[in-house]
C-alpha cells in the first residue's frame, strides 16, 4: 500500500443515538470504574464513545478516542404539550438560567429550538459528575444521556470494511510520468484533468443506469443539503465544479492534515457539474463528534438555510478486536430513539426529505439498519454491485456489503426503499482509484429527487413532498428479475426495496400522483381511488402508496395543555407509547376492530388479540391498505391483489396483467387513530404501467 494511504483516518460515529461500539474490557486498556457505571434507573442512559482510527505503517489500526467534552444530553419535560417552537425555546433557556442561578459548573451548552432538549459539556469527568448529582432530582429532567469519554488508546488488527471500499490503484497511474494519451488519445493539461474525466465517465455510466442522462439540462437552481461527518473536509480543488456554487461549512478536523475524500465525492455525485443534479446549489455541512452539534446543524440547515432535501452518507461501523471477534455494542442494535423521532418530526412539519445510505455491512448478519435510520419518513438507499449495467438492468444484483437487515418488529417497513449504482472513480485528494459503497448510492438518489423537484414545481412547493416523492420512487423503480428474491408483506423486496430508480419513469409517476390529507379519527373508508385504467394482457402495473408518520405533531394548539410533571412524561408520550416492546399491561385493551370491508381483510380476521391491540393502539401511524381491483362483467369491482400490512407507512403492488380489461386501485383507511389531536395524515398514491417488453 502506498505510504500516502497510510495516513488515512476513519471515524467511528456515535452521534445521534448511535454508539459505534462499546469498548470491551477484554482489550488491553485502562478500565476506570466510573461514577455512572452502576446507574440502573430508566432515567439514565449510557452511550458509547466515538473513536477515530488510523492505519499505521505495519497495517495495525490504532484507535484514538474522540474527546466529546464529557457530553451530557438532557431530555426535558416542560409540563405542557405544544408545537410552538418559540415556547419550547423559551422553556429551554429558562432551564439554562436555572442552572446558572444555581451556579453549577460547566464548560458550554447547546439548546434545541424544536424539542425540550439541552446539552452540556465539561472540562473533566468530576465536573460532569458533580453537575449531574446537583440536578438529578429536578422535576424538569426526564432523562439523562451520558456519553462515555474515558477510553485510552488501544489497538485492533483490522477493520471490516475500513471505509468506503477501494479498488487498488492501477500500476500505471501510480507513476506521475504516465502518458495520459493512452486514454482514448485525449490530451490532458494535468493529471487532475485526467482523473476528473474518469470520474465523469463513471458518473455518466451510473446516470444511464438510473435513466437520467437525458434530463441534465433543467437549469432551475434548487437547494441540496449534504451533511457529512467531521473529519471529512472538502477538497477545495473541486470547488469550481459546481455550476451554481457550493457553500462549504467545514469545521476544523480533529486530526491535522486530514485528507479524506468522502465529503467531496459525495457532493460531486449529488449536484456537481458532472453529477446527477448539475445545476442546484449545494450546502455542505460537517457535523462534529457531538450529538448536540449534529442536532443543531440539521436545525440550521432547515430553519436558516431553508433546505428541504438532505443527503446523509454516514453511519456506524463495527470493529473487530485482536482475536478476530466482533466488538458488541447493545446500542448498536437499538430501537427507535429520540434522534429518529427528531428526523421524523422535521420531515412531517417542514417537509424535509432525508436520504440515508443503508450502510456497508450487509454481509454481516448481525448488522442492522437501526437508530436514526429507523426514522419512518426517511429514505434509505442500498447499493448495486459494481458491475451493474443499464443493458442488464433487471439482472443487476445488490452488492453483498449493502445493508438491509432490520429488527423483527420493523421487518416490513420499506428500508431500503430503493438501490442505486455506487461504483465511482474517485480523483479527490489524489486517490485516483475506483471506490464504492452505499455512501455513493445515496447521493445518486438525492440528485434524482432534486431533479424531480426541478421538473415538477408542484412537488417542490408542496409541504406534502415527502410522501409524494416516496410513492413516486417506489412506483417507478425497476424491479429485479432474479431467483431467490424475498418479498415483505408490504410489497418491498428485502434487499432491493422497490428496485432501481428510473428517472424517466419517475416523471411519468409524477404525472399520475394523488395526495390527500385525512383526519386520523375519520371513519374507515376508501380515501383515494384511481381513474379507470384500460390495461392489456402482458402489461405490468406498479402502484405505490405512502403516508407520513406524524411524529406526535398536534393539529389544534390554541392554548397550552398543562400536566403534572410527577405523573406524566413528555418523551414517553412521544417515543415509548409507540414501541411494540411496551409490556402488554401498559397497553389499553380493545374489544374489537373497525374494518372498512371484512372481505378485503380476510387475512387479518384471525389475528390474535395482541395483534389486534397493535392495530388499534400504540401504533406508529394509521393503518391504510392498498388494493388493485378489476371490473367484472356485471360492473362490480373485484379485488385482484392487496397489501394489508399493519406496521408500515409505504405499500407497493406490482402485477402483471393476465386478462385485458378495466382496472383501478384504491387506498382504504382501515383503523381510526385514537389520538384525536394529531395533525392530519398525508397520503400519496401513484402508478406506472409498463409494456410487454418490460
TrEMBL record:
The lineage of its organism: Bacteria, Bacillati, Mycoplasmatota, Mycoplasmoidales, Metamycoplasmataceae. It comes from the Bacteria. Keywords: Hydrolase, Protease, Serine protease. Residues 222-499 form the Peptidase S8/S53 domain. The keyword S-adenosyl-L-methionine does not apply. GO terms for biological process: proteolysis. It comes from Mycoplasmopsis bovirhinis. This is Subtilase family. Gene3D superfamilies: Peptidase S8/S53 domain. The keyword Cytoplasm does not apply. GO terms for molecular function: serine-type endopeptidase activity.
